[in-house]
Design brief:
Cytochrome c; about 160 residues; mainly alpha; about 0% strand; electron transfer activity; 8 helices; 2 domains; Cytochrome Bc1 Complex, Chain D, domain 2; iron; Cyt_c-like_dom; globular; Cyt_c-like_dom_sf
Length: about 160
């Protein structure tokens, strides 16, 4: 019986997401969020200048993707930033400001790797972005490599 209830909820949620005019379908419509302005606190100058020590190779990209989609705790990046990194995650409709759109090349090229590092490590004040202080440097740089790949795919 429990499985039937869960399947019913999934079916109804899916139907609402695709039926025009429902609140859920409206939330999932793409919004014009490129370029994206933000008044994010700037990282300290020594962090701002940081660049990834990792080689740009498929292994690091894969590990960054797994972090973004599955392993990041307290919450995986996809729930806010979306599976495609476009800022359209399942939780994004309830957020102000909306999550960063990583596929927007014009926005992402203005953000240094050091700034991304700082935001991932410390969160972003005035947004829903939590800190990931427990991430090792290697994990943060793998995640940044994956994030950078999304802007290239989105252009």
């Amino acid at each position: 019986m429990r499985i039937l209830n869960i399947l019913s909820i999934v079916f109804i949620g899916t139907a609402l997401a695709i039926i025009p005019g429902t609140a859920v379908s409206e939330d999932l419509k793409p919004i014009e969020n490129c370029p994206q302005s933000r008044s994010t606190k700037t990282a300290p100058s020594d962090v701002l200048k940081k660049t990834s020590p990792l080689r740009n190779e498929p292994r690091n990209l894969r590990k960054g993707k797994v972090l973004a989609h599955v392993k990041a705790k307290p919450i995986a990046c996809k729930h806010c930033h979306g599976m495609n990194g476009d800022g359209m995650g399942a939780m994004s409709p309830n957020m102000a400001p909306k999550p960063r759109n990583f596929t927007c090349e014009s926005t992402m090229k203005k953000i240094s790797d050091g700034q991304l590092y700082w935001i991932i490590k410390n969160g972003s004040e005035g947004t829903s972005m939590p800190p990931y202080k427990h991430f090792s440097d290697e994990k943060i740089w793998q995640l940044i490599q994956y994030i950078r790949s999304l802007a290239k795919q989105g252009s």
